[in-house]
């Protein structure tokens, strides 16, 4: 069970062009999105703490995404 609801994920897949989506496909993507979101969030929290802040800002999220992309390639 994920935090991200499966139905909205199915709508995202449909918006991307799929005519039909299985429940398991939506659930799998929801799980992947949640895992990626947690990875980005953890990195953003570390960046905010490094900057001496408790508040995670947009810039922390953007930088965390950049870091994730660079480590993936």
Automatic annotation (TrEMBL):
Domain Transcription factor CBF/NF-Y/archaeal histone per the UniProt entry, residue ranges: 4-65
CDD domains referenced in this protein's UniProt entry, alphabetically: HFD_archaea_histone-like
GO MF, any single term: DNA binding
Pfam families, A to Z: CBFD_NFYB_HMF
SUPFAM superfamilies, alphabetized: Histone-fold
InterPro entries registered for this protein in UniProt: Archaeal_histone_HMF, CBFA_NFYB_domain, Histone-fold, HmfB-like
Name assigned to this protein: Archaeal histone
Species the sequence originates in: Methanohalophilus mahii (strain ATCC 35705 / DSM 5219 / SLP)
Organism placement in taxonomy: Archaea, Methanobacteriati, Methanobacteriota, Stenosarchaea group, Methanomicrobia
């Amino acid at each position: 069970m994920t935090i991200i609801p499966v139905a909205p994920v199915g709508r995202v897949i449909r918006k991307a062009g799929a005519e039909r989506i299985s429940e398991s496909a939506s659930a799998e993507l929801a799980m992947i999105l949640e895992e990626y979101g947690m990875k980005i969030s953890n990195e953003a929290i570390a960046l905010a703490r490094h900057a001496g802040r408790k508040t995670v800002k947009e810039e922390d999220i953007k930088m965390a995404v950049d870091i994730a992309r660079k480590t993936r390639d």
